[in-house]
Amino acid sequence: MDRMKMDPNRGGPTLSEGIQCDPAAKRVYDSYHGFVRQAVDAVRRSCRGRGLLLDIHGQHHPQNWTEIGYLTQLNSTSIRGLVGRSSRDSASSLSARKFIIGDRSFGSLLNSFGYRVVPSASVPAPETGGYYSGGFITRQYGSLTGGEFDSMQVEITQAVMYASEAERDRFSRHLAATIGLFA
Q1: What is the CB-side half-sphere exposure of residue 128 using CA atoms within 13 A?
Q2: What is the pLDDT of residues 131-163, one digit of tens each?
Q3: Range of the domain at 114
Q4: Are 64 and 138 part of one and the same domain?
Q5: ∠56-27-138 over CA atoms, to 5°?
């Protein structure tokens, strides 16, 4: 179903926008979120409540950067679980700020492969540029309100989306390596 008819990244008060008041779109929406909920629950059961959901999209902002959305308020983020575990599990406590824009942040790790990423150590904030900070899925399934299951929105730049198949494969390998290093 076309995203114009059903947008799974809408919910709560904007749900009617996400389904266009169409019963068929509502069934697809419910099926999609039912599957996501089952997957999240399965990961929670097998990983002691911990997990990371990546909500991956593409975007066309003119800054030509890949955007990582954590719901951006550094003291209230969709990756509270990761930040908290890092603080408990390591000798050197990482603040949320370092976790989001430090040298070992997701954005900085992906940036180390040669991609422009915001937020990262090299581009800590979007300033006046376009930026998706995280949407309904990041809020709904991440640790913003507690727990240790985290969620981030990854908005891939159009330069990668419309690149050659070889370049998209290269980016995919780098994104997978970044996930492995980060989580």
Answers
A1: 0
A2: 788 888 988 998 877 778 889 999 999 999 999
A3: 49-182
A4: yes
A5: 30
- When pLDDT is averaged across residues 61-73 and rounded to a whole number, the result is 84
Please tell me the total count of domains within the chain. 2
**CA separation for the pair 183, 177 (Å, rounded):** 10
Task: Tell me what the pLDDT averaged over the chain comes to.
Answer: 84
SS (H, E, C) 124-171: CCCCCCCCCCCCHHHHHHCCCCCCCEEEEEEEEEHHHHCCCHHHHHHH
Pair (20, 59) in one structural domain: no
The half-sphere exposure of 18 on its side-chain side, counting CA atoms within 13 A, is: 19
Q: What angle do CA 157, 161, 166 make, to 5 degrees?
A: 120
Give the global pTM. 0.84
The last residue of a domain, from among 10, 28, 46? 46
Q: What is the pLDDT of residue 99?
A: 79
Q: Residue 44's closest CA among 149, 125, 118? A: 149
Do 80 and 26 have their domain in common? no
Residues 142 and 174 in one domain: yes
Residues 162 and 87 in one domain: yes
Q: What is the mean pLDDT of residues 122-136?
A: 81
96 and 136 in a single domain? The answer is: yes
Could you tell me if 4 and 84 lie in one domain?
Answer: no
Q: What is the pLDDT of residue 87?
A: 45
